[in-house]
Amino acid sequence: MKSIVIAIAGGSASGKTTLTNRLKNKFGNQMSVLLQDNYYKRNDDIPFEERKKINYDLPDAFDNELLVSHINMLRYGEDVFCPVYDFSLHNRSDQTIKISPSEIIFVEGILVLQNEKIRSLSNIKIFVDTDADERLRRRIERDVIQRGRKPDDIIAQYNETVKPMHDKYVEPSKKFADIIINGEEIDESTVESIFELIMKR
Question: Could you tell me which CATH number the domain at 4-199 has?
Answer without folding.
Answer: 3.40.50.300
